[in-house]
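Hey, can you fold this one?
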Amino acid sequence: MRLDPAFAKAQRELAALPPYVVAAKAGVDFSGGRFTIPFLGRAILIAYPGLEAREARAETPPPEWLQLMLLHYLLTADGAAVEDRWISYRELTGVYLFEGKFTEHVPVRLAQAFGRDLAAFRRASLALGGTPLSRTGDAAFRFLALPRLPVAIILYGADEEMPATANFLFDASATHYLPIEDLIILGAQVAAALIQAAEAAE
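Sure. Predicted structure:
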């Protein structure tokens, strides 16, 4: 079922904006009457002004939750510079009602999937275009989830005394590019893509 009324609202608001300005702020290409948005190794094409979405080299359109998140990315992007300063989800303004949901769907899921297999996490991260980070933790990678929205994952493996934990971090500029609710979706999709990449490599 289409995500109304949010979907219709996002389409209406975006159709009223000049596409070249939107593309410049979001760091995406606009040509041939469509936006091209790189997303975790995929290319999502969004027509303008109709805003129908399709995935390059795919026969079916992307799921509507992903389409809505990308419309929100185009709408929210204000061209702010990446700050190169990592913060947790709880440090973002206004996340109180959403923190539990984020924790459940992102760091807990990553710790469960990779806490006892750091090698699988490293392989999956590299397959997804991640770059290693020199930070604390047993393994850490940076990902460019969207053109101006980097994220990082720091994984601490399980041992005899401590369970595995994962920290999912955003650049401090993240809310210049997505609303806080959509950052949950983004984090969950990064986690899912890593787990899928690990399973594909088995």
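The mean pLDDT is 92. Let me know if you want another pass with a different chain boundary.
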